[in-house]
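INTERNAL AUDIT FORM
Audit reference: QA-55
Scope: verify that the stored structure record matches its stored sequence.
Auditor: D.O.
Record contents follow.
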Amino acid sequence: MVDNNLASPSTALVRVGRSRVSSALARNRLGVASIVFFIVSAAAPLTVIGSGAVLTFANTKTIGIPIAYAVIAVVLALFAVGYVAMSRHITNAGAFYTYVAQGLGRVPGVGASFVAVLAYNAMQVGLYGGFGAILASHLNTWFGWSVPWWALALLAWLVIAVLGVLRIDFNSRVLAVLLTAECLIMLVFNVVELGNPADGTITFDSLSPSNLVTAGVGALLVTAVTGFVGFEGGAVYAEESRDPRRTVARATYIAVAFVGVLYAVSAWALTVAIGPDRIVDAATQQQADLIFTFNAGFLGGWIVDTGRILIVTSLFAALVSFHNTVARYLFALGREKVLPAGLGSTNRRTGSPYVGSLTQTVLAFGVIVVFAAAGLDPLIDLMYIGTTFGGLGVVILMALTSISVIGYFGRRGDTGENAWRKFVSPAIAAILLLVVLWLTLDQYSTLLGLPAGHPAVWILPLTFAVFGVAGICWGAYLKSARPSVYAAIGLGANSVIGRASQDLPARTDSSGVIPAITSPGLAMGPIRHEVFRIGADHPIGPVSRVLSEAFVTGEVAEWLVPDPEDRRRIYPAYWAMAVEHALGVGEVFAGGELSGVSVWYPAVFGPPHASPRDWDQRIDVMCGPYAPRFHALHHAMDAAHPKAPHHYLAYVAVLPELQSRGIGTALVQHRLRELDIASMPAYLEATNRRNLALYVHLGFQPTGGPIALPDNGPKLYPMWRPPSVHRGL
């Protein structure tokens, strides 16, 4: 049962003006591979092993970094279970911030957002120091050029500033090339190192769990976590991905597994080649040159120089990835007006969050200039301390997010997720991450290589507490002084709908029709038919009200509940139940700022789960004497449902006073574009003959005979649409 009176086939969508500014990120730009490139590029594998792991051997005087990478990979895999489960229900570029807001409350969510912005900016800006210093060293070695590190950092800064305002898929192609070359050279180094073990024997000493029972285990673990920072970025790109419910999960699991194995094997291979009893001394003497010096003896200078170039491109790729992450966090906060609303603007042509991108660019420029003017060490003071500081912030955010996952699913019923994803795995991850956090704070001086009484040892961690408290205070202020902004916190792409839905008046007259709507953007023309995906975090009432008002009249409604008064009593509860279920396991879209709604269910691996498990019992209680007809309708549609994989358009509805304006057409077209890209068919049941022409225009064709309802009831018209029909719609 899909439609109410929508629009004639000739109804054209109202064109959006020529403004280059939008409030939505570009959709359907990124697949699984593209997001994996962003995630792994942020990790900068060659830099982590060639610099981070070697410096950890030197600073901690232990050989345990390979097993630390393996253990952290397991911890993050446990974290990812709940994290990606939540990503299936909440699609938001704010990721950590949004999940905390939905799981623990809006005020803690704003506090988490301040911590996230600080942590990711520290990671991104810190990498400029490493890029400039390492490239300057190479240029001096190869050509005798003496170039200041800050000049090279600003050169990278300029290129990244341009990339940040371009299409996100262009950025992913750049990262794909750089990352592929980086990983290939690492595999070559691993083969050489394992093929030439010290003393002719391959040892596994560095992989022994006993290495984690040492005085410096906190430094080991936080260094390992820092190497993975960026893996959580899949959810940041969810709004720009194809089929985010699956894409984000697959990309996150692939990235964690790939990076975990690559790090553990690469660090272990280096201990095998140098010798577990000599790796600490060698790392202390040669530091970041160790991996290249050893392999030069077997591969020749040219391939080692290639590796030196790739460690620079590795840093550049990480800079690009983190820049995009920061820009999207700022965009998410600006869109919801937690930060200045201008940050929530995107370029309509490229879909990039260009204001957030330029803001991050300006901030990075200021930090580079300050560090250069102060004469600080770009490798230690900017890169090493900056990235480990950012890594500490990400550990805090991951621990909070694991707890938030439990809170989020604990308040919701039928979400389609099992207990392992909702509670068990997040609880284990939260405990382990809190242990890592405690060890990190306890041994932070060892990590920084500073005396325990040095001011930086307590000032840096305290900074996160200050930012978190400031965010909490700001969230409390929004709650009391700006309730409309507060209500939209954590809604992401739904924030515009969240604010508009507050203006939807309740039904007040005896006819049950919503009075004339005066909210800007709903009744005032021209209407911009932008379509938003609604996540499980959106309030049920405003969405169910649209469906209830749209379907309260019509042949099917009158057959289901002949008495108009009973129908107006039953329908609000019935549609609230339907929307609650759809927000959990379906795909809900809104158009015209919540003047129209469409509900889709995937039916790829079996029939669509378009009804709650306890649907029959709830219908009996809710509908009373009319329940048999609801059951008859349900069984008739189930019997006619096709078995082939497809996506099911269960409902599309528009408020009665706003019909025939193309809103319903826009809602259907939006999802059909996505399905065409995925080569996925669609199916629906039209409830009246008037809309058949509209669906034919959109590529649907009748399939089989009409579905006849008992007791001389109306007929439903099943329709099927193969993929790639009218691809240009």
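Auditor finding: record pair retrieved intact. The chain is about 60% helix and 5% strand.
Action required: none
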